[in-house]
Design goal:
This protein has two domains: 2-203, Class I glutamine amidotransferase (GATase) domain (Rossmann fold); 217-325, Homeodomain-like (Arc Repressor Mutant, subunit A), CATH 1.10.10. 47% of the residues lie in helices and 13% in strands. It is built from 15 helices and eleven strands. The strands form three sheets. It has a seven-stranded mixed beta sheet with strand order 5-2-1-6-7-11-10. The chain has a two-stranded antiparallel ribbon with strand order 3-4. Helix 1 (14-33) runs parallel beside helix 6. The N and C termini lie far apart (53 Å).
Length: 327
């Protein structure tokens, strides 16, 4: 029997507590129905006997208090809600317990922005991590020692797991079901919960807004120029000169401020504009490509797929129903 401990933090997302409980309890039922013994002992674990969520709308009564759980095999850290820094501070009491369980051999999995609480323990320092695409910049600022994986659905390193944003954590749940049981059971669970079992990227859902929460005015000026000249071919030397900074210094400052190289930033701004065009217009691939400053079809397609995980045609058909109907 594997002991699965689902933490109940303050300021957490109710569904991110209920879903892993539902998933592993359902897997127990699948196993029993096939003549096998249930594998998972699933328990909610908290620092106190009652945890109120969503401003008191919901109340959760953990099955066990931290001190009552001697040894877990798998620990889930659910997604947090609201201000991440405040949420992490309100749950500091959980960190020593998480570290202690990991040292005793437990595997630890964070769901979505539960990665903030996991990172606060120090267990992720020097390791890779996934989280919601919309929080990657904030995460990097708070935990520079952790290597954030842009767009990844599931990241695994040394018995520590993390997942992408929102419902992406279901792919991590299925990954762990497969690891602890077998592929057949994981496929059954994926069908039962209607989850695409092998989705590996959240890139198609990401919206790139740029990183402007910094104080480098020269970089901000360059960012604004890039965003206002999407249709142009942008030269790094000319961009650096326009803000009166040497190229090497400009490139270093740009990456430090935005977590992107100048080229990466230009590409992401252009592809974001292309995505919006595919979503809202009936323009063909070439029209959109030219409108965002690309003249090489292969180069545009390669860059688009690298950033979104989909080809331009696949993206248009996924998010623009009229375009898909009229092709």
């Amino acid at each position: 029997m594997k002991n699965v401990a689902i933490l109940v933090p303050e300021s957490s997302v109710l569904q991110a507590i209920a879903d892993p409980q539902y998933c592993f309890s359902a897997v127990n039922q699948f196993m029993a129905a096939s003549g096998r013994k249930p594998l998972f002992n699933v328990q909610l674990v908290g620092a106190k006997k009652e945890v109120r969520l969503n401003g008191g709308t919901y109340s959760i009564h953990p099955d066990k208090l931290l001190k009552e759980v001697k040894k877990a095999d798998l620990v889930f850290i659910p997604a947090l809600f609201g201000d991440m820094e405040a949420a992490v501070k309100s749950n500091r009491v959980l960190s020593p317990w998480i570290v202690d369980q990991y040292k005793k051999g437990a595997e630890v999995a964070s769901l979505c922005v539960g990665a903030f609480l996991l990172a606060s323990t120090g267990l992720l320092n020097g390791k890779k991590c996934s989280t919601h695409w919309g929080f990657t910049n904030e995460f990097r600022d708070m935990f520079p020692e952790v290597e954030v994986q842009d767009g990844s659905i599931v990241t695994e390193e040394n018995g520590i797991y993390s997942s992408g944003g929102a419902n992406s954590y279901w792919n991590l749940l299925l990954h762990l079901v497969e690891k602890y049981t077998d592929r057949e059971t994981a496929i059954l669970a994926s069908k039962y919960f209607a989850i695409d079992i092998d989705r590996s990227s959240q890139s198609a859902f990401a919206i790139f807004k740029g990183q402007k929460e910094h104080k480098d005015d020269a970089v901000k000026k360059a960012q604004e120029y890039i965003e206002q000249h999407i249709e142009d071919k942008i030269n790094v030397d000319e961009l650096a000169a326009s803000v009166s900074v040497g190229r090497r210094s400009f490139e270093r400052r740009f990456r430090m401020a935005t977590s992107n190289s100048v080229l990466e930033y230009v590409q992401r701004i252009k592809i974001e504009a292309a995505k919006r065009s595919f979503e809202t217009s009936r323009k063909n691939i070439n029209e959109v490509m030219f409108n965002v400053g690309y003249t090489d079809t292969k180069g545009f397609r390669t860059t688009f797929k690298k950033i979104t995980g989909l080809t331009p045609v696949e993206y248009r058909n996924k998010y623009n129903k009229m375009a898909a109907v009229n092709q």
